[in-house]
Amino acid sequence: MIIEVENQLVISKEVRQKIKDLGLGKKVKAYSLDNATTVIKVVNTTWLKDNYGIVKKIWKDIDSLKAVKKMRKELI
Fold it and tell me: Cα–Cα distance between 31 and 38 in angstroms, integer?
């Protein structure tokens, strides 16, 4: 691993491949075990937290009230 100029930690490809849940945008926590050892752990989130706001993006250009009324009429 390398610490970049702006104190960003670069994790090697080999390590990233070993940590199955590690990926772009994933949150991690670092725990210091001693002066030379740190553990990096992927923070598990719920499906709801990972997908919060996705419906808002889908419906952004749609009048939701009209769409729901149309769906209700189709069910009758």
Answer: 5
Minimal CA–CA distance to 29: which of 15, 37, 41?
Answer: 41
CA dist., res. 38 & res. 30, Å (int): 6
What are the backbone dihedrals phi and psi of residue 7, each rounded to the nearest 5 degrees, phi first? Answer: 60, 25
Secondary structure string (H, E, C) spanning the chain: CEECCCCCEECCHHHHHHCCCCCCCCCEEEEECCCCCEEEEECCCCHHHHHCCHHHHHCCCCCHHHHHHHHHHHHC
Q: pLDDT of 40-71, one tens digit each?
A: 888 877 777 777 778 777 878 888 889 889 99
Instruction: Provide the whole-model pTM.
Output: 0.45
